Each structure stands twice: as C-alpha cells, then as structure tokens.
C-alpha cells in the first residue's frame, strides 16, 4: 500500500487556482446555517417538525420539573433512578413512512443513561446512549429515523439501567422528507457495531457499498450537486467517503476552509440519503500522533455540528505507516474520548498498521489487534487493498480478521498499490464476493477524474461539470465498480 497511490499529479497541487476553485465550491454549496452548532440550549426543533413536550406525555416513574433552565414548553421529565421508568408520547403521522425522530435531553452526570426507544411496541433503538452533557442546563439532541404508520402511533423512551434516564425535554418528528423514502440512511438509521458486524437500527447486520472522494484540496470540483445526485441515484451508492488530507496542501494549510468543505459535503450527502465517512486522511507522516492535536480540533467541531445525525462514521486515521500497532492504539484511545464527548453514537473507524493492511504489509497480521484491541466501544478496524498488488495473503487475512473483529474496507482499488496500471477485476471480484458473504462494508478509491486508472472519471469530466450519469464518461474501472455498486442492497428490517 504505497503512499504513491494517493499522491496527486503536479498540476493538481493546490495553488492559487486550486484555492479559487475550492472557494467557489464552498460558496455555492455551503448551507447558510452551517456555522450554527446543534447542541446549544436554544436549539429549535427541525424545520417542518412537530414538537411533543415530555411533560404532556404519559409518564411512568418520573416527575415533571422546571428547575433547570433551557427547556422548552412548561418543563421537562426527570426519570426516577430505576430501570423501566419511561415517557410515552402519542403522535399522529399524516402518512405511513419514515420520519426523523429527535429527542432533546440533558444529563448532568458523567454516566451514560441509556434508553430503549420503542415505536408502536417494537424496539427500534436498543440501549441508545445518552451520555453526560456537562450540566443539567446543557441540552442536546439525538436523532434517529423511524417508520411510522398513518394515523396514531406511540413512541416510548424507557430507562434500561438502575440510573434511570436523562432529563427529557421533548421529542420532535419531521415527516416532511429529509432522509425519507427508501434511501440507505432512511432504511437503516443509526448504525452501531454489534459483535463483528455493522448493524442498522433494527440490530441487523448490513453491508454498505460506495465511493471515496480523492483529496478535496485537489478534486472538490468532482463533488458537485450533479455528481452527488448521480452517485446516489444512478450508481445507487450507500455511502460517500469524504477524504480530507491533513498534509499535502490539505487541512493543515487552512483548517477553516477544509472543515467548512466537510460540513458542506456532509449536508449534501445527507440530503441524498447517503451515509458519510468523515475521513481524516493522514498519510505522510505515517504516525497519527503527529496530527493528534489537529484531529482533536477537527473532530470536535464535526461531532458538535453533526452528532445528532444518524448517517455518519468517523475514520480517525486513514493509513498509519512506519509505526507499531501500540502507537496507533494509543492515538485512538486519546482521540475517541474527545469525539464521544460530543457524539456518543456514531461508529468510529480505526486505521491499522502498515497502510491499514491489518499489519500484513509489515509482516504481521490481525492477531496483534485481537491481542490488544482499542479500549473503546462501537468501533471497527479498517483494511485497505489494491487487487493487482495484494493477493492471497491479504485476502486470507481479511477473511480471518472478519471472523474476529469488526472490519470496514474504507479504501480499495482494482489496480496496483499506487492506484494505477492494469485492472485485475478477477482478483477484485474475489474480494467483493468475500465481503458480500461476510457483510464487510466497502468503499472504492476514487470518485475523481485523476489521470490514474483508479479514478472513475475520464480526465476533464469534472472541469466540464459532467456528464455524471451513465458510463460514457467513465474509465474501465469506473464502469466495473458502478456495476458492482448498482446491484441490489440487502438491508434487513425485521
């Protein structure tokens, strides 16, 4: 897994023209409300949402109180510190289908107070975490997608531990659209690592398939409204990986600009019902500790802004290299708690040794991880491969590892380890068949018009603003991977 794969051509390096292109993309795409965090005490209900106050609901073993500022309506519900205490709302939906359910809460302790969220008697989110918010006057929200029937519905939030639940202010329901319909994010809702699998809101193992951007410092012009529409609707992708390089003209040169671009792309992908992998694309230097301070700043803001979404995954170290697994583990165990302070729900993807090869490229294997896993929950480990270079030993390692660890292939190509040269579709298909059988999610490198064979678009496509749909503008690898992504998803809901 050579660093050369991700190195851009000289003409693509960010200069004045590159900065201008990125600035124009941001100006066109960045939502007007992008600067507002979601977790302030005065956060309004989502647009087109109906608010249902907790104090007006059915309460079992709880009390309506108003002694902590920042609530809406006439007060909030303070759960008794017993398992089984609950708040239940009766709500009406204008039509059957998915809705965004947002619950506003405060937890002044340092202990998680999980709740089972039930809709019409069925658990749709078991043991959902409600971590400490720092104070009883600090209110935050968590959102999940639920399916409602037309007319009357019940929504219950039940404490699952003897500590009871958090203080609950209200729920709001948005049935106007958002992630409505049968998009991947609407069907599956909040993802969670369960055992060795990635599971949806129903606790069922799922496989996501999609594309990674190239570095946004070079190829933001390939991420347009039209290209994202094509990825979601023509390619039928489930997930977009947004690759923010830290070095090589990336984040470290202008943290504000690149963070805002990530905000914008998250919003655009969310509007299309896609999952988003927020990729902290450290590569050179290979020691992730070199960028730990920057990562803390970046992920704190991303998690603050988007932690109430149910369609994100955080990839905290793209390809550690030249360092031991213990060094990578140390980094992860310092960064993950920072993220969890802002977002207790979103899965975190941890890079592995030797360019995320599970150590194979340094003569090791998955056993170094199973012997000393990261001390954190709701995480998966990443694996990268390039089919022409990474043969049977790598494939066998992935197969073994997936039986012991949750694994997400956040980057692969059908070419050599530099992302160029001839395609080996036969070997790549062996990997894809294995990943389908074991429900290992994957993302292909890359959704750009870079001149290398691993970029899906022919050179010049992005500067010409398409065309984005169909296959005329695709290289050989693009045609092949589009066909693989377009095959039907298997998203169990019962």
From TrEMBL:
It is an enzyme of class 3 (hydrolase). Keywords: Glycosidase, Hydrolase, Signal. Residues 1-34 form the signal peptide. It catalyses: Endohydrolysis of (1->4)-beta-D-glucosidic linkages in cellulose, lichenin and cereal beta-D-glucans. It comes from the Bacteria. Residues 37-49 have a biased composition (Low complexity). Residues 50-174 form the CBM6 domain. Its EC number is 3.2.1.4. InterPro entries: CBM6 (IPR005084), Cellulose-bd_IV (IPR006584), Galactose-bd-like_sf (IPR008979), GH (IPR017853), Glyco_hydro_5 (IPR001547), Glyco_hydro_5_CS (IPR018087). Residues 37-61 are annotated as: Disordered. Belongs to the glycosyl hydrolase 5 (cellulase A) family. This is cellulase. It comes from Streptomyces dubilierae.
């Amino acid at each position: 897994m050579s660093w050369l794969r991700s190195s851009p051509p000289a003409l693509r390096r960010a200069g004045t023209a590159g900065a201008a292109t990125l600035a124009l993309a941001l100006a066109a795409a960045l939502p007007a409300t992008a600067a507002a965090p979601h977790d302030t005490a005065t956060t309004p209900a989502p647009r087109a949402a109906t608010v249902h106050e907790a104090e007006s609901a059915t309460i079992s073993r709880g009390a309506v109180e108003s002694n902590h500022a920042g609530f809406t309506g006439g007060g909030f519900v303070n759960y008794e510190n017993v398992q089984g205490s609950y708040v239940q709302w009766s709500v009406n939906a204008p039509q059957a289908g998915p809705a965004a359910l947002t619950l506003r809460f405060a937890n002044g302790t340092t202990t998680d107070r999980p709740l089972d969220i039930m809709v019409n008697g069925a658990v749709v989110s078991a043991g959902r975490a409600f971590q400490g918010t720092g104070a009883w006057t600090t209110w935050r929200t968590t959102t999940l997608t639920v399916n409602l029937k037309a007319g009357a519905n019940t929504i219950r939030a039940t404490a699952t531990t003897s500590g009871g639940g958090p203080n609950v202010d209200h729920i709001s329901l948005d049935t106007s659209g958002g992630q409505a319909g049968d998009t991947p994010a609407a069907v599956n809702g909040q993802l969670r690592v369960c055992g060795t699998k990635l599971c949806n809101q129903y606790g069922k193992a799922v496989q996501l398939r999609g594309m990674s951007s190239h570095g946004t410092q070079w190829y933001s012009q390939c991420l347009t409204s039209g290209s994202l529409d094509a990825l979601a609707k023509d390619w039928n992708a489930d997930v977009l990986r947004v690759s923010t390089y830290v070095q090589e003209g990336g984040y470290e040169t202008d943290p504000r600009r690149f963070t805002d671009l990530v905000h914008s792309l998250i919003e655009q992908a969310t509007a299309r019902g896609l999952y988003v992998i927020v990729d902290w694309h450290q590569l050179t230097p290979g020691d992730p500790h070199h960028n730990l301070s920057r990562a803390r700043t970046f992920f704190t803001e991303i998690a603050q802004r988007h932690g109430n979404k149910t369609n994100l995954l955080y990839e905290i170290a793209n390809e550690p290299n030249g360092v031991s697994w213990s060094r990578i583990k140390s980094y992860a165990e310092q960064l993950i708690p920072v993220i969890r302070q802002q977002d207790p729900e979103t899965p975190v993807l941890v890079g592995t040794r030797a360019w995320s090869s599970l150590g194979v490229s340094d003569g090791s294997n998955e056993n170094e991880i199973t012997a000393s896993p990261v001390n954190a929950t709701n995480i998966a480990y990443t694996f990268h491969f390039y089919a022409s270079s990474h043969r049977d030993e790598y494939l066998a390692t992935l197969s073994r590892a997936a039986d012991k660890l949750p694994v997400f292939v956040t980057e692969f190509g059908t070419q050599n380890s530099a992302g160029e040269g001839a395609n080996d579709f036969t070997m790549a298909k062996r990997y894809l068949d294995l990943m389908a059988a074991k429900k290992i999610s994957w993302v292909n490198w890359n959704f750009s018009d870079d001149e290398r064979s691993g970029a899906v678009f022919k050179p010049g496509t992005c500067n010409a603003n398409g065309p984005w749909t169909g296959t005329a503008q695709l290289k050989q690898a693009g045609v092949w991977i589009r066909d693989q992504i377009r095959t039907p998803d298997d998203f169990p809901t019962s």
